[in-house]
Structures are given as C-alpha cells and as structure tokens.
C-alpha cells in the first residue's frame, strides 16, 4: 500500500525538468554563408564576404569596422558600457545574409526540444541583429529583454569564422551549459552552429581569445495558440503521461484533501508581463518547456488550471487565529499565502500596515497546507507539488540588465495552480465549472475545524 506521503513524493518526482536550451550544428549549402553589407563610413558602398573558416582576418576586421558598438538595456535606456558588453552590432538595414533560417534544419530541430510540445506549434523566428565579437569581445550575464508576451526564446546562429573563446554559457535552475562554437565549427565551410534558449534563461558570452565570432540573433515568438494534439509521439508525451499517472494516483486517494483543493507548482521559468495590464490567464498558452508539460498534464486530467502570483505573510496576524490559538495544535502555524490573478511587485507597496492576506482579502484566494487545519474561514487546502519560487514580484535585477532597453515588460515568477474537487468527484466537479472553481472557499469553510 502506498501511503499519501509516498504518493506525494512520486508526484514530485514525476515532474520532468527538461533543458531550457537546445544546441547543435547543421550543414547548409556553402553559398548560404555569403554575406553583403554596407560600409559604415560610406553606406552607398557595399562589401561582400563569405562567413566561413576561410574568411580572412582583414575581411573580418573590415566587417567589424562597419559595425556600431553594441549597447545593452539598463532599465529604460540603451547604454554603452564596455565593462558589460564589448561587441559590434549591425542593424538589419545594413546587411543581407544569404542564410534563410527557414531553409535550415535549425527550427525543426531546436524548437521541439525546447518547447516539449505535444502538438504542432506555430513559431516565428524574427531576425534581430548581426553581432561581431572581436578578440576580447564578451557580453556579461543577462536575460534577453522580452519584446512582447508572445516572445519565448532567443536563437543565436554562429558562423564558422575562425575564433577561439567566446563560449556561450547558459544557466537556469541550478543547471549550467556551455557551448563552444569555435571548437565545434573549426575549419568548416558549410556548417553553422545554433543555440536556442528561453529568453529568461541567464546567459553570457565569455571573452573571445582569438579571431572573430560572428552571429545572427533571432527573437522567437509563439504565433497562434496550439490546438489539439497532432503529432502522436512528440518529445513530451512521455513526460505528460508520467505526471498524469502520478497525480491521478494522488487524487484517487480519498484521504488527500477530502473536500477538494489546489495543487501548486512553482514554475521554473519567468514570464513577461506589462505591470498592471497583463492578465495572467493570457500567459497559459505561452508557457515554456517543463512548465507547459505541467499545464498539459493537469488540463488533460480535467483539473481547472490557472496562473497565479503568490504573496506570503511570514507571520500569522489574524486575531481570529489568536483567539483560538489554545485550541489548535502547534503545527497549525505556517505562513499565510494569498493567490492573486495579477502580477504585483511587493516592493512597490513599500511598508504595508496590514498583512498581504488582509490587503488582498477580497481579490485573493487564501490557502492553507493540505495537511494543516485552516487558520481562517474561506481558506482553501493546497499542496505545493513544486515549491513556490522564493521570488515573488518582478525580477528587479533583470529589469536593470537586458540585451535592450525595457519595453515596458518585466519578467515575473508565477505559479500554476490546478483545482480539484472533493474525493470521489475530483475531475468532473472541477472540469464542469472550470477555472472559477480555483476558489473553493465555500467547501472549505463548512469544514473549518475550530
Ligand atoms: O552571441 C551569443 O551567443 C549571445 C548574444 C546575446 O546574448 C545577445 O545578443 O543578447
Ligand atoms: Fe542575450
């Protein structure tokens, strides 16, 4: 007999955290590496070179000389600071590359690995810039500035021009990945390298130690929302079913939250929002990678799925609680959490007089751990399958440092919650009434043990 604790552990272990990056090399017809650009000093003159291992240092120096110094985004401004980013950039109107990303194998290879989608997904790759990193060039750790809520990723294509160093290092959720383009492309005349990653993944370009590292960068967008499953054995089907099996076993246990409640998942990725404007529900179709797998598993089980930001009160301040303190077992103490439908930044509120839970009492959902007695009425039982991320609110550091000035969007950490009904009626009860039933308060309050 598996105990409830074991079932919870199995559910936790069933959440697969897939890599938020995908890299490789691909062969292209050699003429795809032909490249034309306008001279900076004299834009009516254009030059031509082939961006392969035979490109000469002189020709690459000339290309570099036609670049502008790359800036990066610090809050609302684009700034130039060579202690943060040392690279050349060329805007789209200044060059013509014979490389058409849609004629390569890059998108069909990288996108499914990254998105872990069960269905086909329309994705757009928008060419953003050409960059040249000469010897000593680098770009310190940053996240890519989101252009809009549909932008999920960035793609870097590296040409086989001779270079050493300039490794791209990506870090996320305790994992690190290094891509050494100079090494994998050495000597090639018809191979390019690519790294695609979710834009909220921290990344940096280490200093180039020799030669010229020439890249094209693309912004990746979701275009139309995905519809039904259309490719049977796509990469995430196993991940989704594994999680579904584990969650069903847990929900089938009548001792688990008998009145119904919520499952919570602290999401691994951050999402771009316009503060005060973006509705969190609009982000459900644009979840990334393993976050999308969680959403798919819960929806396929018929649970009501919603995105929330979570505020936590470190201390219990409810008078109601204090009144009955002596009647409660000591383990009833826990931080109070409030789920909200909008992203807020606690630091914008300054010093607040009340608790978060009382400030947002009307619009928020108050929750209590599934194995604890509710401290207040109208509190919903909740089990965090993946712990709540310790960041609530906006990611201040990355508002400050992006690859472009902020366009009014900021990254936020969010949680996905999935509502289930009382034992015996877990799925259909919630599926019938949909997302609104995230607020299970009436069921809970009737059983509020005081
Ligand atoms: O060149 C690379 O590998 C990454 C460049 C980058 O991070 C950027 O342009 O934002
Ligand atoms: Fe970047």
UniProtKB/TrEMBL annotation:
Protein's UniProt keywords contain Oxidoreductase: yes
Domain of life: Eukaryota
Residue ranges annotated for the Fe2OG dioxygenase domain, each copy included: 122-222
Parts of the chain that traverse the membrane: none
Entry-linked Pfam families: 2OG-FeII_Oxy_3
Keywords, sorted A to Z: Iron, Metal-binding, Oxidoreductase
Family membership noted in the UniProt record: Belongs to the iron/ascorbate-dependent oxidoreductase family.
PANTHER family named in the record: FE2OG DIOXYGENASE DOMAIN-CONTAINING PROTEIN, MYND-TYPE DOMAIN-CONTAINING PROTEIN
Name the record gives this protein: Fe2OG dioxygenase domain-containing protein
Native species: Marasmius crinis-equi
Lineage of the organism: Eukaryota, Fungi, Dikarya, Basidiomycota, Agaricomycotina
């Amino acid at each position: 007999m598996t105990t409830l604790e074991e079932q919870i552990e199995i559910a936790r272990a069933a959440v697969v955290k897939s890599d938020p990056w995908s890299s490789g090399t691909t062969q292209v017809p050699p003429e795809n590496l032909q490249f034309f650009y306008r001279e900076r000093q004299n834009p009516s003159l254009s030059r031509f070179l082939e961006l392969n291992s035979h490109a000469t240092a002189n020709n690459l120096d000339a290309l570099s000389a036609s670049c502008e110094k790359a800036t990066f985004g610090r809050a609302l401004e684009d700034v130039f600071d060579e202690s943060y980013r040392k690279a050349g950039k060329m805007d789209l109107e200044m060059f013509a590359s014979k490389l058409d990303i849609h004629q390569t194998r890059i998108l069909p290879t990288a996108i499914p690995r990254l998105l872990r989608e069960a269905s086909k997904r329309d994705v757009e790759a928008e060419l953003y810039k050409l960059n040249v990193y000469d010897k000593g060039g680098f770009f310190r750790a940053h996240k890519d500035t989101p252009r809009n809520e549909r932008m999920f990723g960035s793609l870097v294509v590296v040409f086989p021009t001779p270079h050493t160093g300039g490794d791209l290092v990506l870090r996320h959720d305790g994992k690190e990945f290094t891509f050494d383009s100079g090494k994998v492309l050495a000597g090639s005349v018809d191979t390019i390298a690519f790294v695609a990653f979710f834009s909220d993944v921290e990344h940096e370009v280490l200093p180039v130690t020799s030669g010229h590292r020439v890249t094209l960068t693309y912004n990746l967008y979701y275009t139309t929302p995905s519809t039904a499953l259309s490719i049977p054995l796509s990469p995430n089907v196993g991940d989704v079913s594994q999680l579904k099996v584990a969650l069903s076993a847990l929900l089938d246990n009548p001792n688990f939250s008998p009145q119904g409640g919520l499952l919570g998942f602290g999401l691994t990725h951050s999402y771009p929002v316009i503060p005060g404007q973006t509705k969190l529900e609009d982000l459900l179709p644009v979840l990334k990678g393993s976050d999308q797998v969680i959403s798919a598993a819960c929806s396929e089980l018929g649970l009501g799925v919603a995105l929330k930001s979570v505020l936590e009160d470190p201390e219990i301040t409810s008078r109601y609680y204090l009144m009955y303190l002596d009647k409660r077992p000591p383990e009833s103490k826990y931080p109070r959490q409030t789920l909200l439908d909008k992203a807020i930044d606690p630091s914008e509120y300054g010093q607040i007089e009340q608790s978060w839970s009382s400030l947002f009492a009307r619009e928020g959902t108050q929750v209590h751990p599934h194995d604890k007695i509710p401290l207040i009425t109208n509190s919903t039982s909740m089990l965090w399958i993946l712990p709540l991320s310790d960041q609530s609110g906006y990611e201040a550091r990355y508002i400050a440092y992006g690859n472009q000035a902020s366009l009014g969007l900021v990254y936020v950490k969010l949680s996905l919650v999935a509502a289930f009904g009382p034992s015996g009626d877990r799925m259909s009860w919630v599926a019938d009434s949909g997302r609104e039933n995230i607020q299970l308060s009436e069921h809970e309050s009737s059983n509020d043990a005081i």
